[in-house]
Design goal:
The chain is mostly helical. The chain contains 14 helices and 4 strands.
Amino acid sequence: MNMNNLFSIVWQWDPTLVMLGDLDIRWYGLMWAVGILLAERIVSNVCKREGLPARTVESAFLWIVLGTFIGARVGHCIFYEPETYLPEPWRIITDIRDGGMASHGATIGIIIGIWGFVKRNHLPFVWGLDRIAIVAPLSGAIIRFGNLFNSEIVGKPTELPWGFQFVRHDAPRAFYEYAGDVPQEVLAEIPARHPAQLYEALCYLITFALLMWMYYRKDLGRRRPGLLFGWAMIGIFLTRFFIEFCKERQVDFEEGMMLDMGQWLSVPFIIIGIYMIARAMMRPAVTDLDAVANYANNMYAAEDKKRSKKNGKRGK
């Protein structure tokens, strides 16, 4: 019997939340929905606090949600399985039920989505980056819980007392054979692993708490444009870089690499984060804290007036 497994946590969570005929609704999908809804609520509160109209959030989230999903899916296919999807790119869509979402791709998609939103609404790009940066770590943490429910992105074997025995990952046959407790003789062959999903989730929640403090207590989102985005990049991707060392390789081509794909992809975001923090701190602090809100409200008022005139002409 493996004595190192005596105090480990046996994890055999069913990833399916509910079956609707042949369609299975998964915990992972629910975590994505919860993460997006909470982000929308918090950003709505941020915009209300700054005096921006509700339509700002409505327009922004259409762009950002689309960017998130498209970026996460395309990013996974290009970064982790190019040999599968580049020859047959339509499978990026047709095979979506097989899974595969990449956080680095999601981040790129979010940034592109913010760029599209601010261009359309004539708002500062950095303003959009800072506001979504507040909630990105929270959504990321919730999605990592979805990975835990899926028993994916597991860590390397460990002797630490909080190790998880991922039955579905290491003994899938036993997972489906035993609806209840897995026999001890089977568990003895399943290694206890680092719960890397929880490590990341915890780091992201700490980053989220820090950003909320910086925004609500210090008002740095308005005083130091770019600072929140910079710290979000550091809090998400620097921790991701180090946690990757205790993760199992996700794809075969990572074997033998000095750093895995997740670490290489994190490096540019870490550099961007350092640059944005330095940029924000070296520039003079903003004194007109309501400039963006005043501009946005004037712009929307002008658009409404223009639309009203156009509708009036049609009425004639």
